[in-house]
């Protein structure tokens, strides 16, 4: 309930204004920066290997995406060289298409690992 006491009001600096357009010293320095800083993208040779490996297995981009539990857009980005590489996704794609995409053995078939069956005698 109001008791009739005086209310303290003070104007806040830039209240209600869009502060995105205010340039401070650090922002101006970044704008003047000449070096372009960008993330590395998937190289075109890796992109081609993914596409060739997928087509050799007879899979569409959607089939490959479903197999590795990713969105089809991810596969499209990797095949066009626009994706920022993730080691986890590259590993899943390698296993799905059976081709090495990283390291010195890039483009080589993945080694087939046969699980060992142990037999016990009674």
Tell me about this structure.
With 122 residues, the protein is mainly α. Helices cover 39% and strands 0% of the residues. It has five helices and no strands. It is elongated. The model has no long low-confidence stretch (mean pLDDT 81).
Q: Could you name the key traits of this structure?
A:
about 120 residues; mainly alpha; about 40% helix
User: SSE string, helix = H, strand = E?
Assistant: HHHHH
Looking at the chains present, what oligomeric state does this protein adopt?
single chain
Mean pLDDT equals 81
How many strand segments? 0
Strand-helix topology:
Elements: H1 25-32, H2 44-56, H3 61-67, H4 72-80, H5 87-97
Helix pairs in contact: 2-5, 3-4
Can you describe this structure in just a few lines?
With 122 residues, this protein is mainly α.
């Amino acid at each position: 309930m109001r008791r009739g006491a005086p209310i303290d009001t003070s104007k806040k600096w830039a209240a209600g204004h869009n502060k995105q357009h205010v340039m401070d010293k650090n922002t101006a320095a970044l704008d003047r920066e000449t070096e372009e800083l960008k993330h590395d993208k998937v190289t075109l040779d890796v992109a081609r290997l993914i596409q060739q490996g997928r087509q050799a297995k007879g899979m569409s981009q959607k089939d490959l995406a479903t197999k590795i539990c990713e969105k089809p857009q991810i596969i499209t980005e990797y095949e066009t060289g626009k994706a920022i590489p993730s080691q986890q996704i590259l590993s899943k794609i390698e296993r799905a298409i059976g081709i090495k995409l990283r390291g010195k053995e890039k483009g080589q078939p993945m080694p087939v690992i046969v699980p060992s069956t142990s037999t016990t005698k009674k």
